[in-house]
Design goal:
Blueprint (H helix, E strand, L loop, with lengths): L17 H7 L1 H4 L4 E3 L11 E6 L1 E10 L5 E2 H4 L6 H10 L23 H9 L4 H8 L12 H6 L5 E7 L9 E2 L2 E10 L5 H15 L5 E10 L2 E2 L5 H14 L4 E5 L4 H10 L3 E3 L18 H19 L3
Parallel strand pairs: 1-11, 2-10
Antiparallel strand pairs: 2-9, 3-7, 3-8, 4-6, 5-7
Helix pairs in contact: 1-10, 9-11
Length: 315
């Protein structure tokens, strides 16, 4: 067996150079399977294999009206307010009762999770009340059809990441703003295409743009979702390796975030990927006192060696 290491240190800034490097050296990097250790276990003592990541589509929306800010007393009621127009347009993209995305065609290509996956997720040690309290919120979005884990792992989202308009300084200034800006992102799940989703979203927003204001849409960046089925031989080999390394049967989970490199490698190499992270949810990632459990560290080393052995035995 040949093992090729690809070490990259720009993931936290969007990996601006990795795609060019991988494409340039594709022949040298070609492989039958990809192992990445950039995820966490579901809980302490519960080794986990991540077999799916959500994709991403990110856009900036600029709505403009008059040539400049206007006096709300002199012009309010006669001129369309860009801030109000944009707020209404954004609000139209979600059902306020259950969070369902109302952009036409948004859910068309989604691959539903299997009954086996849903059964395992329901058996995980997850406490919705504790989850809510740790977040410091009084309530979660209501959705009778999908649990919290399924909503954050296997359902797409539409989020307003930022909104800027008008006067926001100290004191008061009764302006009717000339422009409003919002940044939005959509997390995507298996089989959704970022370009198709951005097209549908832009079409929906343009159809709702009222006369009197203009909409500019800037597509910032996107990344495809990724999924390797749990019954894939490489995923099963990883499961056996973790069982040997940790002495505990692993669980198969998904991750709500995105690692664009994973989908890129799978696309170029036509090779399945497996994410075998050994961090814990309380490791303070990206924060002071970031830490790694030493027991997981040594068990992870053993699991990696067992994984190579298990891969070598596959036909």
């Amino acid at each position: 067996m040949n093992v090729v290491f690809l070490i990259e240190g720009e993931e936290e800034v969007g990996s601006p150079n990795i795609e060019a490097v991988v494409r340039e050296h594709q022949d040298r990097l070609q492989c039958d399977a990809v192992m990445i250790s950039d995820t966490v276990m579901f809980a302490a003592g519960l080794p986990s294999i991540t077999n799916s990541l959500r994709g991403l589509a990110f856009m900036q929306l600029d709505v403009t009206g008059a040539r400049g800010d206007l006096h709300s007393g002199s012009f309010g009621g006669a001129v369309v307010n860009p801030a109000e127009a944009l707020a209404r347009m954004l609000a139209s993209c979600r059902n306020p009762d259950n969070g369902e995305i109302t952009v036409p065609g948004f859910y068309d290509d989604i691959v539903a999770i299997t009954d086996a996956e849903r059964e395992q997720w329901n058996s995980l040690p997850f406490n919705k009340t504790k989850y809510r309290e740790e977040l410091g919120v009084d309530a979660l979005l209501k959705d009778a059809d999908y649990g919290v884990l399924e909503r954050t792992w296997a359902r797409p989202t539409f989020e307003v990441n930022g909104f800027l308009s008008g006067f926001t300084g100290e004191g008061s200034k009764t302006v009717l703003p000339a422009k409003a800006m919002a940044k939005i992102s959509m997390r995507l799940v298996a089989n959704q295409d970022p370009e198709k989703i951005m097209n549908a979203t832009e079409d929906h927003l343009r159809a709702l743009t009222p006369p009197g204001v203009r909409l500019k849409v800037t597509r910032m960046h996107g990344g495809k979702p990724w999924l390797t089925p749990c019954d894939h031989p490489v995923i099963q080999a990883a499961g056996r390796a973790l069982h040997r390394g940790f002495g505990t049967e692993p669980v198969f989970i998904r991750e709500g975030g995105s690692i664009p490199l994973v989908a890129l490698l799978e696309e170029l190499f036509r090779a399945p990927s497996v994410l075998m992270g050994i961090g814990l949810p309380d490791e303070n990632a990206h924060a002071p006192n970031e830490n790694l459990d030493l027991g997981n560290f040594y068990a992870g080393i053993a699991s990696a060696a067992f994984f190579f052995e298990e891969l070598g035995s596959l036909e």
